[in-house]
Amino acid sequence: MWLRNVYLVVTDLEAVRNILLQRGVKVGAIRHKTPSMPGTEVSHPGATGNHASFADFSDPDGNSGALRERGCRNM
After folding, report:
1. pLDDT of residue 43
2. Of 9, 13, 14, 73, most Cβ neighbours within 10 A?
3. How far apart, in whole angstroms, are the C-alpha atoms of residue 9 and residue 26?
4. Alpha-carbon torsion 60, 7, 19, 32, what sign?
5. Residue, of 40 and 29, whose pLDDT is higher
């Protein structure tokens, strides 16, 4: 059985992404979606204010999904 389209909600996306990368999980770049501009995503870190941040992942067993940072933080 494989897991697909799983969202793991985290409070510190960058830290969780780094831990997964260290453990051999393939994790994509962090991207940000601004609620005031639906459908817009920035493919680089550094967005500030109220935004949703995501990073896609997959592991050697074929499981895949996305990390989602809840809330906003000041950078």
Report:
1. 46
2. 13
3. 17
4. positive
5. 29
Give the Cα separation of 73 and 62 in Å (integer). Answer: 32
Enumerate the domain spans of the chain.
1-47
End-to-end CA distance of the chain: 39
Picking from 38, 70, 75, the residue whose alpha carbon sits closest to that of residue 54 is 70
How would you write 34-56 as a 3-class SS string?
CCCCCCCEECCCCCCCCCEEEEE
0.70 cut: is pTM over it?
no
Greatest distance between any 2 Cα atoms in the chain: 39
Which amino acid type is present at position 46?
G
Q: How far apart are alpha carbons 19 and 14 in whole angstroms?
A: 9
Q: What is the pLDDT of residue 22?
A: 95
